[in-house]
């Protein structure tokens, strides 16, 4: 079912834990201002549903529904999360195909050792550690079809936010509201 409009933008941000997805999504919203909805896998899966990340999980459909709702109401949408290709790929493919506007997909490629280092700086660092990170880690877990731009670990936060705003045509990447 078609969703959004020719003027809405859908941005997919995927990558391993502690790769910078949430920081980039927050930076996009801060720099773009109102009219940009954040659809976070963690918020919907862990906070709303309190569900483990499993194939066929209820959060997959909820992410799709929330993204479509926001697009259909004129919002630009950033869907962000680990979003393993095996579990979320089919939903993301259909969402991308159904979106009437431009869609931009990014995969944050951060080596495992760097994710461990970054995780140690997060508020929830004590909740899980290296063993859990290792179990979740998938190197270069790209969606099929070559639809994602790979952003390397060396790309800084501001540089990455600027790039995505430019790519999506969401105005001056230095604007703040």
Write the layout of secondary structure elements.
Elements: E1 9-15, H1 21-32, E2 36-40, H2 41-48, H3 58-72, E3 76-81, H4 85-98, E4 102-109, H5 112-119, H6 130-136, E5 148-152, H7 157-168
Parallel strand pairs: 1-3, 1-4, 2-3, 4-5
Tell me about this structure.
With 177 residues, this protein is α/β, with parallel strands linked by helices. The chain has one domain: Rossmann fold. Helix content is 43%, strand content 18%. The chain contains seven helices and five strands. It has helices spanning 21-32, 41-48, 58-72, 85-98, 112-119, 130-136, 157-168; strands at 9-15, 36-40, 76-81, 102-109, 148-152. A five-stranded parallel β-sheet has the order 2-3-1-4-5, with helices on both faces. Helix 1 (21-32) crosses helix 7. The longest helix has 15 residues, at 58-72.
Mean pLDDT: 91
| Order of SSEs | EHEHHEHEHHEH
Please state roughly what percent of the residues sit in beta strands, choosing from under 5%, 5-15%, 15-25%, 25-35%, 35-45% or over 45%. 15-25%
The backbone outline, from C-alpha atoms, is globular
């Amino acid at each position: 079912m078609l969703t959004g409009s020719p003027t809405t933008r859908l941005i997919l941000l995927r990558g391993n834990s502690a790769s910078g997805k949430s920081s980039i999504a927050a930076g996009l919203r801060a720099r773009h201002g109102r009219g940009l909805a954040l659809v976070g896998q963690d918020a919907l899966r862990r906070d709303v549903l309190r569900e483990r990340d499993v194939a066929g999980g209820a959060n997959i459909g909820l992410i799709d529904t929330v993204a479509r709702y926001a697009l259909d109401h004129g919002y630009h949408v950033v869907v962000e999360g680990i979003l393993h290709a095996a579990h979320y790929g089919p939903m993301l493919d259909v969402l991308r195909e159904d979106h009437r506007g431009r869609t931009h997909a990014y995969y944050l490629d951060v080596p495992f050792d760097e994710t461990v280092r970054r995780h140690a700086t997060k508020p929830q660092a004590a909740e899980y550690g290296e063993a859990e990170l290792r179990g979740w880690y998938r190197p270069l877990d790209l969606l099929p079809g070559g639809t994602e731009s790979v952003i390397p670990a060396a790309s800084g936060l501001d540089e990455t936010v600027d790039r995505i705003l430019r790519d999506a045509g969401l105005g001056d990447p230095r604007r703040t509201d």
